[in-house]
Task: inverse folding
């Protein structure tokens, strides 16, 4: 028995989808249950068999392998009564002190076997702890390149991104860059970007859309290029949305800061930048060169297919079934 524990409170959250995709991957091989200590997102609760932890009534995970996807909040006192044979902590932030507190809580609950799984090699290096690296699984049947159609006849080059609607997920220099892109004839679509509207009037070509307005795959398939950068207070341990965009065959243009960096070969399967000037130059080059967009997008898709090949997925399953 494997118990997957996550807040599951935001259908636009990367850790929520890490949990769901792990559930889908493991379920054909063993009994798996989804658990949350919180009120789950209604759309997730409607689609997946989510259990609420209720220590008072004794409705808690019991025995087996207990998997915590994220260390955002410390686990409840119910862990001692759960008496898992093994606990796995999927560490997907960059707060070593919180990880230490989380591990101490498990030790105090007398969990005998505790393991840490990292979101990226870069995160493991920064933490300097032992553990395996596991990429957050992506459904490659859902996130696919768009098929040719009327959308390919549009006049504007569309740059976009999606994330949770959180100011920390955006950089202060993003809006000036978007204005430059609009001045150069681009259209900019940001799903999960309504928080940026507080900064002042928007350029006519910048569209800020509430998170979850469109299915993620349909939103990505409507773009020509994916742009990604977070604020200085948010270091992205993996960057699931980057790989979803790559799976959709999009050229990605990403800030050189985050766990995704190790999987992007600059100029081959995507682009990395440090400054607004570099980002603008790359984006305008992509705007002008359809063949470049196609070749980079094809290489991006191939990269993600290799990351999530049947052999790599089998390794993940084997790890959890040990």
Result:
């Amino acid at each position: 028995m494997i118990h997957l524990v996550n807040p599951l409170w935001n259908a636009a959250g990367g850790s929520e989808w890490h949990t769901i995709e792990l559930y889908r991957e493991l379920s054909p091989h063993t009994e798996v249950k989804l658990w949350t200590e919180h009120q789950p997102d209604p759309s997730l609760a409607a689609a997946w068999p989510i259990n609420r932890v209720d220590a008072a009534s004794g409705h808690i995970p019991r025995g087996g392998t207990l998997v915590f996807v994220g260390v955002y909040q410390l686990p409840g006192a119910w862990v001692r009564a759960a008496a898992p044979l093994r606990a796995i902590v999927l560490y997907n932030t960059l707060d070593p002190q919180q990880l230490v507190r989380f591990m101490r809580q498990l030790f105090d609950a007398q969990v005998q076997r505790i393991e840490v799984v990292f979101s990226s090699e870069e995160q493991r290096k920064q933490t300097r702890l032992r553990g395996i690296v596991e990429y957050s699984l992506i459904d490659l049947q859902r996130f696919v390149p768009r098929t040719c159609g009327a959308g390919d006849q549009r006049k504007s080059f569309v740059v976009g991104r999606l994330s949770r609607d959180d100011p920390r997920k955006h950089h202060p220099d993003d809006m000036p860059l978007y204005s430059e892109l609009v001045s150069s004839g681009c259209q900019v679509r940001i799903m999960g970007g309504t928080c940026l509207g507080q900064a002042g009037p928007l350029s006519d070509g910048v569209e800020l859309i509430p998170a979850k307005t469109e299915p993620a795959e349909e939103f990505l398939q409507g773009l020509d290029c994916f742009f990604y950068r977070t604020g200085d207070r948010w270091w992205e341990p993996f960057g699931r949305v980057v790989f979803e965009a790559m799976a959709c065959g999009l050229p990605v243009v990403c800030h050189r800061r985050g766990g995704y960096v190790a999987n992007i070969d600059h100029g081959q399967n995507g682009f990395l930048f440090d400054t607004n000037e570099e980002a603008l130059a790359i984006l305008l080059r992509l705007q002008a060169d359809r063949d470049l967009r196609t070749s980079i997008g094809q290489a991006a898709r191939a990269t993600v297919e290799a990351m999530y090949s049947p052999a790599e997925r089998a390794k993940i399953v084997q790890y959890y079934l040990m």
